[in-house]
Amino acid sequence: MTSTSFPMDGGCDCGSVRFRLTTAPLFVNCCHCRWCQRESGSAFAINAMIESDRVELMQGVVEMIVTPSASGKGQQIARCPQCRIALWSHYAGAGSKLSFIRVGSLDDPDQLPPDIHIFTSTKQPWVLLQDGTPAVPAYYERRLHWPAESLVRFEALLARPATS
C-alpha cells in the first residue's frame, strides 16, 4: 500500500452522495473474475476493503441493492439513488461490517493502487499487469499477502457482533 494521507473522500457522479474513508483500507484488490467484469461492465473491479465504521457518509443516502454473487450468497451494493453509481459493496463473509469501496468513486483514486491482482485466470488477455504487484490465478490466502496490521484489524472486525 502506498503512503497516502487520510481521511480520503469520495462520492457519486451527481454529487448527491459524499463519503469519507477515515483511515487507510485493510487491503486493495483488483479483481479480474467474470462476475466483476460483468457487474462493472469493464475488465476488472478495484475494491479497497475497510471496516464499515471507518466509512463516514457525509452527504446523502445510499440505496442498498442485492445482486447475485459467485458464492450464491449475494452481495449488497451501495448505490446513489439518483445517478445509480456503485460506491461500495458488502459480501456475505463479513457482512455489513466490511465495506469494499469502489476505488474509482474516490476523489483521488490514484492514491490506492492494487495491492494484489486476483482471479487472473480470467483476466482479459489485453490487460497487462505491472511488475512488482502480486497476482494470483484465483483468490489468495490473507496471511500470505496482507500487512500484519491489517490482519490484526481484520481479526478484531470479525470478533465484533454483527450489525444490521
Can you walk through the features of this model?
The strands form two sheets. A seven-stranded mixed sheet has the order 6-7-8-9-4-3-10. The protein is an alpha+beta fold and 164 residues long. The protein has one domain (8-159): glutathione-dependent formaldehyde- activating enzyme (gfa) (Alpha-Beta Complex), CATH 3.90.1590.10. It is built from three helices and ten strands. A hairpin with a 6-residue loop joins strand 7 and strand 8. The chain has helices at 34-40, 142-145, 148-159, and strands at 8-11, 18-21, 27-31, 45-51, 55-59, 63-67, 75-79, 86-91, 98-102, 116-118.
CATH fold field value: glutathione-dependent formaldehyde- activating enzyme (gfa)
What is the radius of gyration? Answer: 15 Å
User: Can you list the strand order of the major beta sheet?
Assistant: 6-7-8-9-4-3-10
Can you name the CATH architecture?
Alpha-Beta Complex
CATH homologous superfamily descriptor:
glutathione-dependent formaldehyde- activating enzyme (gfa)
Share of β-strand residues: 25-35%
The major pleated sheet works out as: 7 strands, mixed
Mean pLDDT: 93
Number of domains: 1
> What is the CATH class?
Alpha Beta
Total helical elements: 3
Overall strand count: 10
In angstroms, what separates the terminal alpha carbons?
30 Å
Q: Which residues sit in consecutive blocks of at least 5 with pLDDT less than 50? A: none
Q: Helical proportion?
A: 10-25%
Summarize the structure.
This protein has 164 residues and is an alpha+beta fold.
